[in-house]
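Sanity check

After download, print the first record. It should look like this:
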Amino acid sequence: MALKVGDKAPEVLGINQDGKELKLSDYKGKKLVLYFYPKDNTSGCTAQACNLRDNYSTLIDSGYEVIGVSADSAKSHQGFIAKQSLPFQLIADTEKTLSELFGTWGEKSMYGRKYMGMFRTTFIINEEGIIERIIAPKEIKTSDHTAQIL
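Expected structure tokens:
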């Protein structure tokens, strides 16, 4: 059963690009933008990450911290962060543990072909660790994502 608005987010979020475990309690007192995206270095995912990067100081000033999540490896994340100068951490959810918990991993379809993949979804988690808002895949505007969050 996927997490929904009003649910408490899990304490252990996952392992970041440097092999460090990220925990919800690390962000106590801040609102957390936990955004799930399909793949490093693809057009939509790069547009979304760069929009968050370009508006990162505004998000921080508004009390938010940003963490991206995809099923890519830590090595892939390191390259993506370096190439795009991303100021936030990325979780390497290679086992899809977090994605399955949040309900962002499932069957997708493109050009009639079915496959398993990540649904682009953003969760806004409040200062107490409760999911306050979910921006669903069809709602997300990759090039204007910060405005949607704020």
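If your output differs, re-run the checksum step. Summary of this record's structure: The beta strands are 12-15, 21-23, 31-36, 64-70, 89-92, 105-110, 113-118, 121-125, 131-135.
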